[in-house]
Amino acid sequence: MLILEVTQRYFQNAENKPTGLQKDASYNGYILGNGSDTIGSSGCLLTAYTRIANAANATDGGKTFSPGDSNEVGIANSRFEKGSSGLKRDPSSLLSDLTGKKFSYSEKEVAIGPKSQSSLAKIVKELGNDKTATYGIVGQLSNGHYININGVDADGNLEISDTFHYNTGGGNRTIKDYNGDNVYVMQLRIVKVED
Predict the structure, then answer these.
(1) Is 1.10.3720.10 the CATH classification of the domain at 3-193?
(2) CA 129, chain centre distance (Å)
């Protein structure tokens, strides 16, 4: 089962305005990690993992974090590369810091192109159908941007929630909607709740 099914709803406030985006004015100017980039310019991966943590916390009434909060937790617990804005490759420790739960991590990479998207969609669909475990998925796009992946639509397209823009009109967008046929998901970063 995918915990990201709650992601899009979770990041809309009562007035249906976006919250929890990397460009939110309340923290977009914060220095990201141990580098010189800001959350607003380079915090898409941190934002995607923050959403996973918040979705996992929502299942049992846990705390809600902004990307700014997650950044502070990550700095305090050495979850960023030394002298860098980049998170350490395996986000399990950061997610555990934010949720109190144990996570495992894996990656799936494919060659970039339209045919590769169907193999990624198959992986996402299989994880979504797995009722014995709970997963969160982050996709790395061919342009370097990171997004949350929420599932697969009836046509086999990956459903996404962008970390920079919220989905106007609510609901999921697909990767095809994101940028026509010019951008592809090239990697899945999969986290699994272990306890």
Answers:
(1) no
(2) 19
Q: What is the pTM of this model?
A: 0.87
Q: What do you get for the CA distance between the two ends of the chain, in Å?
A: 14
**Alpha-carbon distance 149 to 5, whole Å?**
9
Structure tokens at 139: 């996709």
Q: What is the 3-state secondary structure (H, E, C) of 68-103?
A: HHHHHHHHHCCCECCCCCCECCCCHHHHHHHHCCCE
Over the stretch 99-157, which tens digit does the pLDDT of each residue have? 999 999 999 887 766 667 788 888 888 988 888 888 999 999 888 889 888 888 888 88
Q: What is the C-alpha separation between 140 and 165, in angstroms, rounded? A: 16
pLDDT of 71-96, one tens digit each?
999 999 999 999 999 999 999 999 99
| Cα→Cα distances 7→31, 61, 184, Å | 25, 15, 21
70 with 50: CB under 8 angstroms? yes
Delimit the domains of the chain by residue range.
3-193
